[in-house]
Amino acid sequence: MKYISTRGNIAPKSSLEAIRMGMVSKGGLFVPEKIPFIPMVKINSWKLLSYSQLASNIFNFFLNDNFTKNEVNNLVKKVYNKNIFQTEEITPLKKLTEKLYILELFHGPTGAFKDIALQALPLLLSESIKKLNIKNKLLILVATSGDTGKAALEGFKNIPGIEIIVYYPFQKVSKIQELQMLTTDGNNTHVVALKGNFDDCQNAVKEIFADYQFCRYLEKNSFEFSSANSINWGRLFPQIVYYFYAYASLLKNNEIKCGEKINISVPTGNFGNILAAWYANQMGLPVNKLICASNINNVLTDFFQTGTYNRNRPLISTSSPSMDILISSNLERFLFEITGHDHKQITFWMNELQDKGQFELTKNIKEKIKQKIFAGFADEKQTLNTIKKVFEDYNYLVDPHTAVGIKVFFDFQKSCETTGKTIVAATASPFKFNQSVLLALNKQENDLNKNEFNLLQELGKLSGLTIPINLSNLENKKIIHNLIYEKTDAKKSLLDILNIRQ
Predict the structure, then answer these.
(1) N or C: more exposed end of the chain, with fewer CB within 10 A?
(2) Sheet holding 422-426, edge to edge
(3) Catalytic residues
(4) CA dist 122 to 116, 232, 290, 493, Å?
(5) Which residues lie across from 292 on neighbouring strands?
(6) What CA–CA distances, in Å, run from 293 to 45, 265, 289, 406, 434?
(7) CA gap 422, 262 in Å, rounded
């Protein structure tokens, strides 16, 4: 398998090189040269496989140029087991109604779906360092809107030959999310709060990657860049696995017939998680509609409904902060695929987005996309109402991000005469957003000004659920990281951390 740039500005790379580089330094993202296809008879045969066995099959498609099957099998066994995840199923599928199923992606070390890929990526990068005989230290830069940061820190801490720096928007993540990051130990972990929003953090990382002179300077000081954000293909393709696993679970439990199409609803900001579902569909997974669910920062909803992507709007802080994004990086991959690898068109659109803050699809591409994607959004009131409704009607507790995915599924259901079965990706533990969830369940606002850990206990009592140990023990952890910089000083913070002077 070779990997090519969405902007046609670099020669095809091996899987090792694409994962190590993270993104194309001149701009652009790596995608597989050709998407593998899996016949339905094989998908049906996977219904009795464990998660790690199914993951081995998917991983082998994307790593077969540099990894043996035994190497891949050993890697996934190290990652997808009960010692790391809190359930043997890894991503259990819960049935709420005959039409609605919840794919729980939050049973990893940090309580968010990012764990599923970010437990595998460090091992992939570590192997890349060995196989490519890299002598410099690998410097991982991560921009996070809340969950990616902690998941990346946990995955990469104490990995030899790697340093990781996480940038998050100051005072724009939940308190639990912030504490998870600031208390991370490890001899190679660094956390920086930038005074801006997530897009500022993401743009800072992209600008550093794109600064040729700065990259060369760091190489002279024995560092090379890579990324753990979903701009790195090594972060994205492991997410394809759980959509196949969910379908296999439906087959195994006789909830669907072989070949029956399903819908998948994904709460998304950066378009990575739903893109993984799209790739799964292209690989042969029977999907009718992909439901793109946004919060009030509904730049993607507007895009899919009008054909115009316009980030020229204020970014609003919400109860679903991991979706507070106006520049959806992985959309570039999707457009590259949907245009038939038209890198000139992609380069034009991305330049328009950078220079003018917007671009417009051609009519034929707009219509092609509408055939596969339904887009909608939930405002803050609708998000909280959905949390309450799901808890009262189904005795099931969801976080604000998952609530957005369910609300937009309800909208989709109303718009169709028949919808078929739908899987909603549950992207985070409700305990990570205890204040918002308690507010949704009619707790008075003045009761919510308590210590964050008192709120955890309250939510545990109210829901009857066990508080995840990785959250309940946060209170006793020491804050290790306390760096705060202006949003324009990301490079300076990096040099300060590495003790390098230009």
Answers:
(1) C
(2) 93-95, 100-104, 422-426, 262-267, 287-294, 373-377
(3) 114
(4) 12, 12, 29, 23
(5) 266, 375
(6) 31, 7, 12, 8, 21
(7) 6
For 209-262, the pLDDT digits (tens) are 888 899 999 999 999 988 888 889 999 999 999 999 999 999 999 999 999 999
Count the neighbouring beta carbons within 10 Å of the beta carbon of residue 377.
Answer: 23
405 vs 415: CA distance, rounded Å = 15
pTM for the whole structure: 0.93
Residue position matching structure tokens 């968010």: 112
* CB contact set of 399 (below 8 Å; sequence gap of 6+): 106, 320, 387, 426, 427, 428, 429, 430, 432, 433, 436, 437
What's the CA angle centered on 279, arms 433 and 103, to 5 degrees? 35
Q: Which residues pair with 193 in a beta bridge?
A: 168, 484
If DSSP codes are grouped into helix, strand and coil, which group holds residue 266?
strand
CA-nearest of 398, 359, 199, 372 to 292 is 372
Which of the four pLDDT bands, split at 50, 70 and 90, describes residue 446?
low
- Note whether 94 and 425 are within 8 A (CB): no
| Count, residues in the chain | 502
DSSP state of 357: S
Q: Both tokens of residue 348?
A: 């034009």
How deeply is 98 buried, as exposed, middle or buried, from its count of CB atoms within 10 A (0-12, 13-18, 19+)? Answer: exposed
H or E segment at 257? none
pLDDT tens digits, 391-445: 999 999 999 999 999 999 999 999 987 779 999 999 999 999 998 999 999 866 6
Helix or strand (DSSP H, E) at 318: none
Amino acid occupying residue 120: A
Count of alpha carbons within 13 Å of 34, Cβ hemisphere only?
Answer: 4
Q: In the block, which residue shows the tokens 């909280």?
A: 384
Q: Which of 290, 309, 250, 244 is nearest to 409 (CA)?
A: 290
Question: What are the pLDDT digits (tens) for 345-400?
Answer: 999 999 999 999 999 999 999 999 999 999 999 999 999 999 999 999 999 999 99
Residue 426, C-beta contacts closer than 8 angstroms, at least 6 positions apart? 102, 103, 104, 105, 106, 113, 398, 399, 402, 405
Closest CA to 265 of 237, 287, 286, 232: 287
What tokens appear for 314 in the block? Answer: 């204020």
- DSSP label at residue 391: H
How far is residue 77's CA from residue 88's CA, in Å, rounded to a whole number? 12
Closest alpha carbon to 245 in 50, 40, 42, 423? 50
